[in-house]
Amino acid sequence: MAVFAWQGRNARGELVKGNMDAVTEAVVADQLLAINITPVHIEVSAGVASGAHTTHRYVQSLWLRLSGQAVTSEDVELFSRQMYTLDKSGVPILRAFSGLEASATKPAMQEVLRDVRESLSQGRELSGSLAQHPNVFGAFYIAMIRVGEMSGKLTEVYLRLSEHLAFERDVRDRIRQALRYPAFVLIAMSIALVILNVFVLPVFAKVFSGFNAELPLLTRVLLVFSGWMQQWWLAVVGGALGAVLAWRAYLKTPNGRYRWDRRKLRLPMVGGIVLKATLARFARSFALSSQSGMPLVPALTVVAKTVDNAYIGSRIEQMRDGIERGTSIANCAASVGIFTPVVMQMITVGEETGELDSMLFEIAEMYEREVDQSIKSLSAAIEPLLLAVISALMLVLALGIFMPLWNMGQAAMGRLGG
């Protein structure tokens, strides 16, 4: 990530400029367009984009994440709720930011609030000041603040943003809660298999070799696999790490991200949950932006970047292009092929009656209920599956290790008795 110096013109044609952290110039341009600023010139900022400075910022960001001091979505949600209360009470914005800066518990959040307050004191708009921190305030958040500034409904926008962030946090927490138990079991099983292959099976191999008897096939397979693990464990670890790094690099490419986002929607058990959660996020974000007065085309442009799925995002952009050509929202939604007939009917009724915002909120709530039910069903389905896997592992160990020992013990007892 580098620091880019940009210049652009706002909606009034005034020349504005600033600095922004981003990966590429295209990301900076997208952020500026999201806050209704037309970029004129973007370049890497001299003096602050040096390698040492970038390395320092990366190390600092990594340390904040590891220490739990980085700014999270929960912090942004709390900030939105506090700004709603302060703005509703008529507190001046500079005074509000000064108070929030003094009460913030995280140094990283204090630094963000201080930088935004200083930017505001220089005469910049709030949306432009927040845009200088794209890692904290996303494109959707900044665009909504921009709409609130232009429409005079900033107080209402703060409230809606806090509710939107609370919904996203709730969905993430429920999915994590459903996956926590199976993840813990899989990790424990992996550790147990490593211990068995590295420490336990070599001991049994020495015991078996002392009997000079033919071992069952399953036992021989386990011993060969254990020997292979001991000899090539370093290559296995290196290969696993290399595969993980290669996979992450592949996902950073546009084509790789698109293919994986499309594929994970078809995964058994979890694909449906991911699809419903993504569509719920789309419906709520679209309803929120439309209700706040944002035009349809810019709203869909921003929403496509906030659904966190490249495949669904491309379908939303396809809807946007159709609307831009004059096609109705219902026809554009039908053409992308990601909505159920019930949802299509609700969109059609909402567009015909002029209550599209309300219908989109109902669609979001419907998807949220389905996600909640699917997560409960997932938890119920995973438990017997894990039990079957653990039982199969125990059976393999019993047949492969303990049965030969039992047979050898019986044979030894028979010889002693004879």
The first-level CATH class name of the largest domain: Mainly Alpha
Class from helix and strand fractions? mainly alpha
State mean pLDDT (0 to 100 scale): 80
> In percent, how much strand structure appears in the residues?
5-15%
> Helical residue percent?
over 70%
The CATH superfamily name of the largest domain is Type II secretion system (T2SS), domain F
**Measured on Cα atoms, how large is the radius of gyration?**
29 Å
Q: Main sheet: which strands, in order across?
A: 2-1-3
| Largest sheet entry | 3 strands, antiparallel
Oligomeric state of shown chains: single chain
CATH topology annotation of the largest domain:
Receptor-associated Protein
What is the number of domains?
Answer: 3
Record field, number of beta strands = 3
State the order of secondary-structure elements, H for helix, E for strand: EEHEHHHHHHHHHHHHHHH
Low-confidence parts: 47-62
Level-2 CATH architecture of the largest domain? Up-down Bundle
- How far apart lie the N and C ends? 79 Å
Broad shape? elongated
Note the total helix count. Answer: 16
Summarize the structure.
This protein is 76% helix and 6% strand.
Structure, described:
By secondary structure, the chain is mainly alpha-helical. The chain has 3 domains: 1-70, no CATH class; 72-137, Type II secretion system (T2SS), domain F (Receptor-associated Protein, Up-down Bundle); 160-418, Type II secretion system (T2SS), domain F (Receptor-associated Protein, Up-down Bundle). It is built from 16 helices and 3 strands. A hairpin with a 5-residue loop joins strand 1 (2-9) and strand 2. The longest helix is centred in the C-terminal third of the chain and has 62 residues, at 356-417. It is elongated and about 95 Å long. The chain starts with a strand and ends with a helix. 27% of the residues are buried.
